[in-house]
Amino acid sequence: MTVGLIGSSYAAEKAGSEKPNFVFFIADDVSQMDFGCYGHPTIKTPHIDGLAAKGMRFDNAYLTTSSCSPSRCSIITGRYPHNTGAPELHVKLPAKQIRFPELLREAGYYTVLSGKNHMFGNKDRAFDKITKGKDPGCTEYWLKHLQERPKDKPFFFWFSSIDAHRPWQKSKHLRSYSPEEVIVPPYLVDTKVTREDLASYYHEVSRYDHDIGLVTAELKKQGVLDNTVIIIAADNGRPFPRDKSRLYDSGIKTPWIIHYPPMIKQAAVSKSLLSVIDLSATCLELAGIAKPDSIQGQSFIPILKNPQEQIRDMVFAEHNWHVYKNHERMVRFGDFVYIKNNYPNQANLCYESDTKYPAGKELWEAHLAVKTTAQQEQIFANPCPEEELFKLSKDPNQLTNLAGNIEYAQQLKKARQLLADWTEKTGDSIPAKPTPNRHAPPRVENGKIISNGKYKVRNPHGEMPGASNNAKTINHPGPLWMKPK
């Protein structure tokens, strides 16, 4: 691997100057809209909001999948899930896949992963140290790593909180929320139990913010805050029905806040589309390291310099097995989101829709009692829509499917073409023998809810998406622009 300043326009400008440090914060199961700086009226996130107020907030940053381990494997390699070889939940990242922190480490960076891992074992060539922590957020060692780092090396820290993953854990010294403060999305039933469930989630979002505040204060104390690129993100949406694992914005849009004063001269908000696979290319360019061919992401340095700039005008995402069998694909372009469901002959449930989780149980009971609205009934559709098309400016919660509306026939045709092009170029495929459901999903029989049974095999993996095309060796980024640039 060639390491150097060649091919890096930003590095050429910075030649001879101090290399930037990096701190990448990633939450576990948090939706973009659940921070104060993104407009949430209740959840308190003052530390994240403060960084956004001095940096850049991205309103259209997308994950490549709304599922824990495949999302993280995608981010660290800069590749789509079916191109990593680890596209499903609980699949380890293949050793042959390049992790971008390993290139930083080879170039002299001190690298640490602390908190939730969910990609590989407790040792990996990309990191000098990997630690977890036994506190509620798994953030126990974050400050220790900062304080004990080698002072003669630039650093890259992958700080991964377990907040806000179920089961909930409460910290008495931090902000709690009452059920009355909760904003219930229209696709959940508004009951006391649902509100209490959401209030516990709010608490964990605030804890994530608190831990980020501690790290930021330590960076400032050490005098390195201004030369540290801080990135704040999440691996997938909140752990509630129709959010986590799904391809609607509540599941697939990530918070994306960058604080880096040397480049972001004035606080800004960018509406430009961005994919999380773009992080790898950006960090490498900032560090003056050539991007390897394996990275499908694009550097978003042009946006950091000018929030109106664009590096792509479409983003793609996928939904593969996450406890339940699935194969959905999504493309966002302009004001539209298109979702193709390749297994329409089943209800498209996420694990958090199960009756073992309070909000999911409430939804199932309302469904049984025929007390749900049309919006709340969508997750029970069986078969579910083969195609979905949404106009985001008019339908931010993506509740009105326009795929059958002749007025949007041209947008539907374009979406199909874009997705087909991406599928071909990146080597995606529908498995011939897909991973089956871990266990039967809940169902209603004879006026009763039949809950799922215990699973026999925790990870009953079958053929992986992209495997028949050997997609883990394909490096094509797929389409980036509607018109050639």
Features:
eight-stranded mixed β-sheet, 12 helices, Alkaline Phosphatase, subunit A, disordered N terminus, 485 residues, 2 domains
Walk me through this protein's architecture:
- It contains twelve helices and 16 strands.
- The protein has 485 residues and is α/β, with parallel strands linked by helices.
- It has two domains: 294 residues, 3-Layer(aba) Sandwich (Alkaline Phosphatase, subunit A), CATH 3.40.720; 157 residues, no CATH class.
- The strands form four sheets. The protein has an eight-stranded mixed sheet with strand order 5-4-6-1-7-8-2-9, sandwiched between helices. It has a four-stranded antiparallel sheet with strand order 11-12-13-14, with helices on one face. A two-stranded parallel ribbon has the order 3-10.
- A hairpin with a 2-residue loop joins strand 12 and strand 13.
- Helix 5 packs parallel to helix 9, helix 6 packs parallel to helix 7 and helix 7 packs antiparallel against helix 11.
- The radius of gyration is 22 Å and the shape is globular.
- The protein starts with 8 loop residues before the first helix and ends in a 35-residue tail after the last strand.
- The N terminus is likely disordered.
Fold topology:
Blueprint: H1 9-14, E1 21-27, H2 46-54, E2 56-58, E3 61-62, H3 68-77, H4 81-84, H5 100-106, E4 110-115, E5 129-131, H6 142-148, E6 155-160, H7 192-221, E7 228-234, H8 249-252, E8 257-259, E9 268-270, E10 274-275, H9 278-286, H10 301-305, E11 314-319, E12 328-333, E13 336-341, H11 358-368, E14 387-391, H12 409-426, E15 443-445, E16 448-450
Parallel strand pairs: 1-6, 1-7, 2-9, 3-10, 4-5, 4-6
Antiparallel strand pairs: 2-8, 7-8, 11-12, 12-13, 13-14, 15-16
